[in-house]
Design brief:
Blueprint (H helix, E strand, L loop, with lengths): L18 H18 L4 H24 L3 H24 L9 H56 L22 H16 L11 H34 L1
Keywords: Membrane, Transmembrane, Transmembrane helix
């Protein structure tokens, strides 16, 4: 039931996350869950986790690639704005004669406001691509966060007393033990290792904080499930 790696890291690098190995781990885990709990909700979730693991590396790589259409549009907008300013400055003949100190302050204030507006517009255009990428990545990370909650919900139906529902017979007539919870913790571990792939090359701390939150959530729920699994294991042992 443990997580297994059978392929060697690429180029001898061992301290970096290797997406193909994470995918292989998810596939091995899904296969074990399907063998132990065929047709169960957890088995279906494990299959979905494999699909997410397959597309996570591509999503992360795509998020790091430049969006040339946005860059071209931003450059054109900046060039157009600069050309417009040049046209205005060339054709408008300002009279730099001030009668009072108040007129000097008014002209200075107007010039400062114009520079501030232009700087803000240029910053908006220059950072537009980064904001698009960040929004996409945060959406992918939110998907992982929601997956963690779904895994947690699947085990809330069962009580620590031998995994029996509070009312009625055991689910589907299957004999469930603490390994169900251990499978949940391993799925959480896979998700916790998928999230950092989105942090590679991330600019700013928004994405890093989101990844850290996912990792913290996965670890906290995993600790809770491990404690519950131990309670179930001890309960089964005392009842035998």
């Amino acid at each position: 039931m443990g997580i297994r790696f059978s392929t060697a890291p690429k180029d001898g690098v061992k301290h970096r996350l290797d997406p193909p190995r994470i995918v292989e781990t998810a596939e091995n885990l899904a296969r074990e869950i399907d063998q132990r709990l065929p047709g169960s909700t957890l088995s279906g979730l494990a299959a979905e986790l494999v699909q997410i693991a397959h597309c996570t590396d591509e999503r992360a790589s795509r998020a790091r690639r430049p969006i040339y259409a946005v860059r071209a549009a931003s450059v054109l907008a900046i060039v157009a704005a600069a050309s417009l300013l040049g046209f205005i400055g060339f054709h408008v003949h300002a009279r730099w004669v001030f009668g009072t100190i108040t007129e000097v302050f008014e002209a200075t204030d107007a010039g400062f406001n114009l520079v501030a507006i232009l700087a803000g517009a240029l910053w908006f255009l220059a950072s537009f691509e980064a904001r698009i990428k960040r929004r996409r990545v945060l959406g992918y990370i939110e998907e992982l966060r929601e997956f963690i909650h779904v895994i947690d919900v699947t085990q809330l139906y069962f009580t620590p007393d031998l995994y029996r529902p509070e009312t009625g017979p055991p689910l589907g007539g299957r004999k469930l033990d603490h390994t169900y919870l251990l499978f949940c913790t391993e799925m959480l571990a896979v998700i916790g290792n998928l999230a950092p792939l989105y942090a590679r090359g991330a600019s700013g701390d928004t994405v890093l904080r989101a990844v850290a939150d996912v990792d913290l959530l996965a670890n906290s729920i995993s600790l809770k499930l491990q404690a519950k699994a131990e309670a179930v294991r001890l309960g089964r042992r005392s009842s035998e």
